[in-house]
Recover the amino acids of this structure.
């Protein structure tokens, strides 16, 4: 069988280790990672190999040659423009002929039985057979859903936690039939996971997944690189470690396991290991300690300490300096005597930490902050002065500035203003312009963003030491998951740009956001051009509620800020995106019921479709059917997001209150009467922490409930006359439970029942 190695990767997440070299040429135990892949292929009888290249192709071809040093025959195919994974393989069609063939990545570390995968493929007569493995943290991979026989049911590329219902991920190792490649167009970008495999499933072709019993690790970033090193040294993965290996000299304390290459100089009295790799040309002086680290031709001075770090070729750590876990020193970078490099700091090539200095932020093209992850609500959260510092916001601003014009706002304290000004500097330094508004809350800033159609917008909200960064797209909604991932990755890699003085961006300010926001909410939410019946309402006090009161007054409501019996009451919550409401008797109306009420109002006024979040109550579907309409669920139905964008009363408190009061003004009924016009139901929420992985527990759930179905971020399970919605949490290992039933007691019992089931599934899953 022939093989294709995909070796076109740039390896941006591995920087500075991959600066100046393509990712497959990253050195590992005396040879490139690509060389270890060739060793694996040769051991399993695969010697005729095509290699697809794009990034620095000569850097691969000049070193690997025709493959004679590895006992294989190499044929190279160079992409002039990116073709995607399947498009790259299609370019190799003349080499492959009409036989089945193997596809493998050139930048992963693996030790698995390829012959067993080939036999599995032949036995199932599959169009494509995929090697799968389990990952408890699968967000950076493609999920693969299978039945008990291994037949593939579906794929989710780079999921959010809400989409995780299995731990099985795609390793990028396949055995493919010739016929499946006929679907791949020539010369255009085309991907296996996103396009070809779903197309094959749509054609009812048989695709099977084989859970590998061996070892596989995507060498995605520097942390994964060190993990691979430790796994190989500890024997978890088999790899040829003989090439270039030498024994340590006498007088050196070596705590195994370690790997020491040729021309390594170790002075008496130094201590090496455990889990340490010293590549060719490395030096360690007397009294120095190097443990759980990789030196790729670097030097460590007398009495210095290096722990859990990667030191590239020519890097130097001078006398009694200290380099901490997760640090990476690029080629020819220097750490001065008695200096300290803090955990996780990266130094790009030829950067330096002065004698006695302390490097607490990465020295790259811009300052790199600590890794930040978006929450379920699409916000970046952290503590002022810890995760969120002026340096962090400067780096974030430098990334946002590349989008062009950027909206900016802040509220809550001087800390928020400080961080916003740091972001402003980064935006302008990257050539972007800033439109700064006086919005008092994120929802008002969201309106400003969509009013001006800004490509991206940032609002900094402070609450004591806690800070939340809200980022919006031109529709005023949180950035989509793809844009969030790009920002997360760029922050981790320390990317960002600077422009010359003549291109530095400008600052423009806009005032009156409060009044503009209120007028727009009144105008768009109004259900009739005729004067409305006067409606007396009460609005809670507070800065955001001041805008709400202004909007309802403009609508024609008689607004009181004091408690008056017999009036419905409203309050804007959740930074302006949530509405609390009480009817004329003072009874609270839940946010879920408000969503159903707003659905009814839309349907009564001619809407045939209403878009709702995936967790929205099933009672909304009942209301829609009554009016001959339908509910579209975000993340499930085509057209749902576009409709959601056009219905701000479904996700903005100001618009929602105006919509409800407009309805009351048209009909003259009370809010209590309107509430009783929709089916009676109640929802109860819970959250269960997990001992095992989120994906594994969701697998157990789907195994026990064949009738369950994916809806957006989670899974909806019908239970009698009610429903349970389960969704994995993104920031912690836990599942959220939303139970819906005809009354609160039944919903609470349903929620408790599934909390117990989750605990049972969690106990069954391996930890």
């Amino acid at each position: 069988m022939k093989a294709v190695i995909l070796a076109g990767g740039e390896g941006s997440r591995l920087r500075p280790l991959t600066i100046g070299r393509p990712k497959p040429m990253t050195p590992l135990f005396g040879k490139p990672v690509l060389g270890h892949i060739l060793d694996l292929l040769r051991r399993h009888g695969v010697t005729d190999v095509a290699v697809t290249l794009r990034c620095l192709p000569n850097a691969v071809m000049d070193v690997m040659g025709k493959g004679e040093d590895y006992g294989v025959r190499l044929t190279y195919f160079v992409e002039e423009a990116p073709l995607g994974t399947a498009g790259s393989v299609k370019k190799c069609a003349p080499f492959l002929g009409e036989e089945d063939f193997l596809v493998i990545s050139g930048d992963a570390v693996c030790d698995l039985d390829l012959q067993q995968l080939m036999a599995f493929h032949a036995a199932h007569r599959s169009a494509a057979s995929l090697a799968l493995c389990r990952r408890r943290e699968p967000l950076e991979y493609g999920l693969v859903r299978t039945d008990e026989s291994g037949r593939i049911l579906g794929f989710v590329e780079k999921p959010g936690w809400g989409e995780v219902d299995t731990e099985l991920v795609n390793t990028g190792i396949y055995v493919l039939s010739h016929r499946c490649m006929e679907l791949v167009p020539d010369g255009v970008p085309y991907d296996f996971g996103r396009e070809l495999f779903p197309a094959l499933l749509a054609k009812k072709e048989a695709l099977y997944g084989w859970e590998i019993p061996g070892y596989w690790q995507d060498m995605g970033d520097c942390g994964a690189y060190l993990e691979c090193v430790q796994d190989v040294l500890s024997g978890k993965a088999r790899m040829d470690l003989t090439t270039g290996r030498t024994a340590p000299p006498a007088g050196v304390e070596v705590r195994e396991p370690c790997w020491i290459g040729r021309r390594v100089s170790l002075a008496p009295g130094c201590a090496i290991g455990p889990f340490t790799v010293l590549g060719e040309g490395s030096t360690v002086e007397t009294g120095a300690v190097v443990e759980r680290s990789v030196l790729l031709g670097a030097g460590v001075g007398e009495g210095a300490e290096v722990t859990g770090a990667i030191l590239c070729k020519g890097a130097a750590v001078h006398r009694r300096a200290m380099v901490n876990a997760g640090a990476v020193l690029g080629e020819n970078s220097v750490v001065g005597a008695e200096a300290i490099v803090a955990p996780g700091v990266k130094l790009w090539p030829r950067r330096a930490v002065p004698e006695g200095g302390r490097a607490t932020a990465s020295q790259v093209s811009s300052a790199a902050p600590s890794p930040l992850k978006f929450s379920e609500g699409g916000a970046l959260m952290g503590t002022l002065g810890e995760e969120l510092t002026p340096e962090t916001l400067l780096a974030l601003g430098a990334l946002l500035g590349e989008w062009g014009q950027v909206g900016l706002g802040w509220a809550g304290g001087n800390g928020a203003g400080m961080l916003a000004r740091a972001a402003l500097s980064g935006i302008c330094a990257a050539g972007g312009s800033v439109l700064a508004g006086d919005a008092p809350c994120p929802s008002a800033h969201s309106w400003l963003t969509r009013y001006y159609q800004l490509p991206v917008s940032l609002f900094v909200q402070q609450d004591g030491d806690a800070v939340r960064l809200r980022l919006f797209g031109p529709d005023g909604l949180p950035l989509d998951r793809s844009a969030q991932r790009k920002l997360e990755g760029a922050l981790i890699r320390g990317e960002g740009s600077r422009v010359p003085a003549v291109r530095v961006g400008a600052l423009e300010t806009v005032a009156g956001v409060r009044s503009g926001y209120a007028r727009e909410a009144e105008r768009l939410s109004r259900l009739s051009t005729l004067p409305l019946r006067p409606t007396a309402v009460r609005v809670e006090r507070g800065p955001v509620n001041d805008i709400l009161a202004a909007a309802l007054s403009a609508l024609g409501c008689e607004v009181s800020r004091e408690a008056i019996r017999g009036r419905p009451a409203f309050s804007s919550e959740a930074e302006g995106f949530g509405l609390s409401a009480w009817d004329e008797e003072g009874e609270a109306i839940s946010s879920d019921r408000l969503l159903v009420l707003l659905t009814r109002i839309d349907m009564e006024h001619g809407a045939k479709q209403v878009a709702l979040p995936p967790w929205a109550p099933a009672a909304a579907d009942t209301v829609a059917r009554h009016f001959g309409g339908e509910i579209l669920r975000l993340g499930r139905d085509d057209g749902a997001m576009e409709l959601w964008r056009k219905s701000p009363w479904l996700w903005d408190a100001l618009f929602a209150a105006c919509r409800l009061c407009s309805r009351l003004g048209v009909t003259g009924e009370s809010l209590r009467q309107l509430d009783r016009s929709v089916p009676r139901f109640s929802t109860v929420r819970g959250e269960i922490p997990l001992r095992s992985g989120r994906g594994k527990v969701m697998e157990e759930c789907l195994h026990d409930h064949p009738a369950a179905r994916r809806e957006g971020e989670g899974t909806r399970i019908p239970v009698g006359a009610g429903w349970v919605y389960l969704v994995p949490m993104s920031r912690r290992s836990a599942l959220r439970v939303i139970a819906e039933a005809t009354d609160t007691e039944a919903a609470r019992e349903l929620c408790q029942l599934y909390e117990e089931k989750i605990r049972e599934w969690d106990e069954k899953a391996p930890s």
